[in-house]
Every structure is written in C-alpha cells, then in structure tokens.
Amino acid sequence: MSWKSILFCLLVSVELMAQSPNDHLCQGAYFPEYRGAELLRELKPESLNYWQVRRQQVANQICKGMQLEQLPPAPASKPVIHSKKIMDGYTVENVFFESLPGLYVSGNLYRPTATRNSYAGVLCPHGHDGALEGRFRDQTQIRCAMLARMGAVVFAWDMIGYGDAKQLEHKHPKALQLQTINSIRALDFLLSLPGVDPERIGITGESGGGTQTFLLAALDDRIKVSAPTVMVSSHFFGGCVCESGMPIHKAAQYQTCNAEIAALAAPRPMLLISDGADWTSHTPEVEFPFIRQIYGLYGQSTLVENVHLPNEKHDYGPVKRKALYPFLAKHLNLDLSIIKDASGNIDESRCKLLSKEELSVFNPTYPLPANAIKGDWK
User: Fold this and answer.
1) Whether this model's pTM surpasses 0.85
2) What are the tens digits of pLDDT across the range 308-329?
3) Angle of helix 48-65 relative to helix 287-297, nearest 10 degrees?
C-alpha cells in the first residue's frame, strides 16, 4: 500500500471516529480519587509472572487504542540542524525532521561544549500552556541547558500545534497517536547523533509532557531512565485529546490508569515528581506505593523514587528541576558538580534564556519544506 493510501485511510478513520461517540474514552478526572485508589488495589499484581502477563496486556491495549499496532516506516529524509549558538558550557541548535511523510517535528538540540568519550541522551517533552509556547518557555530552556552542561545531549520538541509545529491544530482527533510517533522519532534522532550512548537514555517532561514521558517509557525499552513530572495519577487521565483522546485506558472487560501505565517502565529507574496543587497530591500514599510494589517484584524497589512537594504547584519550576538533576546524574552518569556553586548549591544562573526568534526552526533561510502538509487533516 502506498503512503498516499495509508494517509487516506487515516483521514477516513478520523472521520469515522468523529462521527461515532466512543464510550471507552477515559478523559480528565474520569474517576473520583477514592475510585482511583480502589482500582490500584484491584490491579495489584500477585506475582512477577502475573505482572509480566498483565504488562503485555496493557502495552497491547495502548497500541491498539492508538491504532498504532504497527509503527509506520520512517521517512528517508535526513534531519536538518542549523543556527548553532554557543553558550556557557553548552550549545543550542535548531532542528527539524520528518516524522511521517509531510509531517515535521521541530525542536532544539542542546549539547555540551566539553568533549567526552560518550554522552547521555535526554528527551525533554513539554507540557501545555495557554500561549502555545511549549519549548520556548523558561522552565524548558533551563532544564535542557542544565542537563547539557552536566554532559547530556538533550532534545526538546514541539507538541503538535505548538511552537513551530503549526501544520496541525493541537486538538487533532489523533493527537495522541501522532505525538507518540513524534516521541519515537525524537528518540530515533537522539540515538543517531554522534557519541550518544544507547545505554544512557532518559526522558522527562511535565504535565502533558509527563504523559509523553511515561507513554514512551512504557512502549520503548530504549528509554533507560524516566522522570514523569506532575502527571502520574490513578484517577486523572489527562485533560487533552493528546493524552486521552483515544481509547488506551479502557476496553471491553479491561481498565487501566496512568499509574499502571507508568509502572510498565519497571525495573528501569524512574522518578515521580508530585505536588500538592493537582491530581498528584496523594502520590506518596496512592500511586507511588503501587508502582514501588511492582518494582519490588523485580527486586528493584529502590530504583523508583518519589519527590513530593506539597507546597508546590503544577509546573516544572526550579524546586522540581533541582530534584531532577541528582536523579539523572546518578542513573545517567552525569556530572552534577559542574552545576553547583562554591557553596555546593545547584546554580541555574549560567543558563541564558533565548528568544522565540532565536529558537524558531523555520525562517526564510530554512523554510518549511515544500512537501509539508498544509492545514489540518480533515
């Protein structure tokens, strides 16, 4: 089947999906909090063998619900990397590449200036914001710059409809599927870069970026370390179509939640960062013990951690970032000392914020390619 035929079938399925209500969607605060906690008690695995069977069932339903049981082949075109900016201990470049024919991923690549024998790689998906700025926001830029200064090659990319990724509107009916494909392609890109160590690959994002984090870690074992931030919940399923707009959580005789999906990363190291102002307010008593118990089935309960910040809000602010850096340093062999001041405190002041214009991927010199899809798929 040609790619034109595949894309036509995709468009037709979107139309059918729009015409038929789907009672298997679990969106937003789908459960009251007590029911989310009850579900985790019901889902508690009896043994490692039981969990391994259940783990495959959950992974299969995610792929089936996304209509992604077979990943489309990657386009043959090569990534474009341009506009290198030399900063204090790191560089920033602008990147775009095809995810599907005519659909482009846009983002920024942060690399250490210091030469090393090999580099860890970290993916940094961003969350939602009202201005659709995403990777341009301070919290994303600083996180990426700090990790690059520590010795990681870091890639931050746009959710569809954000930043430079304006080919499709963000609330596309297949946003969840498309963003998962983009996450896989972002990982492919990161692993293609010179010196990136495939055994030291991490991912961390907040909110909707947290959803992308635990989904990719669940589906792709090339992710070795994950840190989903202010997102993992047993009762909240994501409030956007890019998180819960396709039936990945529920089917006939089947129910899961994001806490169980996050647990599919076991026994690879994972940090849950939670706060007191959103649906992660009870992570220490509800979601974390459930996930830690699954890690315990592998004899690796110490490889999952929870940093709970009851006085913090829903973001990836400095307190959360300062919880992240030591965790990734430990598990990805990064240099934590390089980001500390003379008193031993983590210091983010050497990271310079760049303007949207400096970080933008497409411009007169590097225009959106001629084959790019124009407008939303209807």
Assistant:
1) yes
2) 999 999 999 999 999 999 999 9
3) 120
